[in-house]
Specification:
mainly alpha, 0% strand
Length: 69
């Protein structure tokens, strides 16, 4: 049976935001570990895309967008 926290959407949005941030940090850390410019660009692009997704979760949580109201 799901706990009270499991039923709270904020529990899930915050968990996803933390996981996305962790992945963004990992991608950006790895930029300094590789030499290939194309791979560096792909890592940075992926981090930016995940940042947009993280913002979407935050907007949902904060009800900042009309779609989430």
């Amino acid at each position: 049976m799901a706990s009270e926290a499991d039923r709270d959407p904020r529990h899930h949005t915050r968990k996803m935001q933390a996981l996305l941030q962790e992945t963004m940090n990992h991608l950006r850390d790895d930029i300094g570990k590789v030499d290939e410019p194309q791979l560096k660009a792909m890592f940075e692009t992926a981090a930016e895309v995940l940042g947009g997704l993280k913002k979407a979760f935050s907007d949902y949580e904060q009800k900042n967008e009309i779609a989430w109201r």
